[in-house]
Every structure is written in structure tokens, then in C-alpha cells.
Write a structure and sequence with these properties.
Helix 2 (36-44) packs parallel to helix 3 (64-72). This protein folds into 2 domains: 4-127, Response regulator (Rossmann fold); 137-320, Alpha-Beta Plaits, CATH 3.30.70. It has helices at 12-24, 36-44, 64-72, 94-99, 112-133, 138-151, 160-168, 172-175, 196-210, 238-254, 282-298; strands spanning 4-8, 29-33, 52-56, 82-86, 104-107, 178-185, 220-225, 228-234, 258-261, 264-267, 270-275, 304-307, 319-320. The chain starts with a strand and ends with a strand. It has a 6-stranded mixed β-sheet with strand order 7-8-6-11-12-13, with helices on both faces. The chain has a 5-stranded parallel β-sheet with strand order 2-1-3-4-5. The chain is α/β, with parallel strands linked by helices and 321 residues long. Keywords: DNA-binding, Phosphoprotein, Transcription, Transcription regulation, Two-component regulatory system. It holds the Pfam family Response_reg. This is PleD family two-component system response regulator.
Length: 321
């Protein structure tokens, strides 16, 4: 079944072009809005549903930046990918758009291959995030994550939205030179961290330990969600990224903290998945890293560093470090 796409653009000509382009790319379930306020009303009232939103930046009454922020404020729409449509004359607005919660952008007139790649990358990332959340109490988890993010992360890391915005605002050439490390707190989140309060304490503790590790000024770090952290670095090869990942893993191990598991306890540890620079879109690299570190966690090994595969679902054997 084709993903449902919402397209918001105040130009009839642009809407015709968007629909024709999406049809050629195999996206046949498209809901178009000329009026951004009508789009917001439909979204807020649950009259509209979508797997991805394409949104023009420059629109009357409500521009794309405000519309994006209003949509992101809705809990049920917080994970729906939003790709901004921008002309080269309003590229300066992209930083604001990313801070409002946009995932990616394409410039007008569209290159079909680029648009398809960015859409599929965003849909792939959403699918991976949805997969890892299945079976969890979404409402309780969100409250814990929101509390953690507001209380601890800003003092140590950039926000998820700001980190994402910084990544996506890189030039295409710089994006190809971007390496990522995805960290995950080890342990079964349903069993070992059954108490939500303890889970939040662990995230706080790991954030504090990560914050003590010196990193180059050009690098960035963010609490991504729940038990995931994401690190980004330019001009770092695989070996350098692996060495950096080991620094953070060692910082947690050297703290000698423990996690209660029923009547017993285990050492607190984190695992990492290294995603070296490549031609892949940033969203694709993030999805690879998330699945990689999830797969590493399922092996039962702790303090593991894995290398993300080129194709999600085909990961190399994890290495113990």
C-alpha cells in the first residue's frame, strides 16, 4: 500500500507539479492543501492522516515554519516526517524550519531522484522508530522522555530538533562527510528498566557521564529519545569514530554504576553503532545506526561497538570491545 502523503502549497501550479511528480514516483495516495490553515484544521481535528508531509516554506497567513511547529506540538504527529519545499531564495529560512521540527528539505524545481531519495529515507527512519516502539506504553514513555529532556539534556546536549537541524543544514558535500555514532543504554528496557523512574535516572546518569568526555568543537551530541543518544562528526573516518565511541563506552564503564534487575544487579553499560561517512541521506544513516545498535543489544553482549551495514536488515557481526 502506498504511503499517504500530505502536500501543503498555496500555488495551484506547484500542487499540480507535486502531484504529477509523486505519481511518477509511485506515490498515489496524496492529499493536497492550498490553504495552510485548512491543512492545520484537518490535522488538528484528525480529519487528515499521513505518513509524510511535504510543505512549502513561503505561504500566506501561516508560513511553513509556523505550520511545522504547530504540527509538531501535536503528540500523535510528532514522528510524522516533514520535508520542506524551498526555493533557493528562501534557503535562509531552513535553520528556523529545522528548529521547528522539519526532517529534511528539497529545493524547487524538484529533481525527481533527489525527492524520491529524501522521501524514502524519511519514511524508512519513521518505520524503524515505529518498529522499536511497538509493544511499549507510548504515553508513559513520552512523559518520561519529555521530563528527562526538559530537566537534563539542554545543559549537556543540543535538543533533538536542534541537532537534526544542524545536520540537515549542512551542504550536500558536507553531509557526505558526516559520520554518526548511535548509542543505546544496554539492558532489556521492559525487564531491567521496568521502573520508569529508574529508567529516567539511568538516562540522566549516562548523559552526565557522556558530558564529561571531551569532544572536538565541531562535533555535536544529542539525546535522541528514551535510551538512545546520537553523536555527529565531520571529517572523521571509521577508525576515528570507533575510537570516539570507545571513549564514551569506557566513561560509562569506569563509573562502576549498577542497574537493579529484580533481586540482582548488573553493571551499567552502553553499546554503540558506528555509521561512517557515505553518500546516504542523513535520515538513512540514522536509521541504519538505530537498527544497528538495537541488533547489538539483542546479542546480550554489553559495551559493544558495531558497524552499520549499507542495507538495513543486513548487519555485520558485532565486535566485543
Amino acid at each position: 500500500m502506498s504511503p499517504r502523503i500530505i502536500a501543503v502549497d498555496d500555488s495551484d501550479i506547484a500542487q499540480d507539479f507535486i502531484n504529477a511528480t509523486l505519481s511518477e514516483l509511485g506515490f498515489d495516495d496524496v492529499v493536497s492543501f492550498i490553504d495552510p490553515r485548512a491543512a492545520l484544521d484537518a490535522i488538528e481535528s484528525d480529519e487528515a492522516a499521513a505518513d509524510l508531509i511535504l510543505m512549502d516554506i513561503m505561504m500566506p497567513d501561516i508560513d511553513g515554519i509556523e505550520l511545522c511547529a504547530r504540527i509538531r506540538a501535536l503528540d500523535r504527529w510528532s514522528d510524522v516526517p516533514i520535508i520542506m519545499l524551498t526555493s533557493r531564495t528562501d534557503m535562509g529560512s531552513l535553520s528556523e524550519a529545522f528548529m521547528a521540527g522539519a526532517n529534511d528539505y528539497v529545493t524547487k524545481p524538484f529533481n525527481q531522484i533527489e525527492l524520491q531519495a529524501r522521501m524514502r529515507s524519511c519514511l524508512r527512519l519513521k518505520s524503524e522508530l515505529d518498529r522499536r516502539r511497538s509493544g511499549e506504553n507510548r504515553g508513559a514513555r513520552r512523559r518520561a522522555v519529555q521530563s528527562f529532556s526538559e530537566a537534563t539534556v539542554p545543559s549537556l546536549f543540543g535538543s533533538k530538533g536542534g541537532f537534526q537541524g544542524n545536520l540537515m543544514s549542512l551542504s550536500p558535500a558536507m553531509q557526505k562527510d558526516l559520520g554518526l555514532i548511535v548509542f543505546r543504554i544496554d539492558g532489556d528496557r521492559d525487564q531491567a528498566d521496568a521502573a520508569r523512574g529508574q529508567r529516567q535516572e539511568l538516562q540522566h546518569l549516562v548523559a552526565g557521564l557522556f558530558g564529561k568526555v571531551d569532544i572536538p568543537a565541531r562535533d555535536g551530541f544529542s539525546h535522541w529519545e528514551d535510551d538512545l543518544f546520537v553523536y555527529g562528526s565531520l571529517h572523521a573516518d571509521h577508525a576515528q569514530l570507533e575510537a570516539r565511541a570507545q571513549q564514551f563506552i569506557s566513561a560509562v564503564a569506569e563509573a562502576s554504576a549498577s542497574v537493579k534487575e529484580g533481586w540482582t544487579s548488573r553493571p551499567l553499560s552502553v553499546s554503540a553503532c558506528v555509521v561512517p561517512p557515505s553518500d546516504a541521506a542523513v535520515a538513512t544513516s540514522l536509521a541504519r545506526g538505530i537498527q544497528g545498535v538495537e541488533s547489538a543489544g539483542k546479542t546480550g553482549a554489553t559495551g559493544t561497538i558495531c558497524l552499520a551495514a549499507n542495507d538495513i536488515g543486513h548487519l555485520p557481526r558485532n565486535g566485543q570491545h
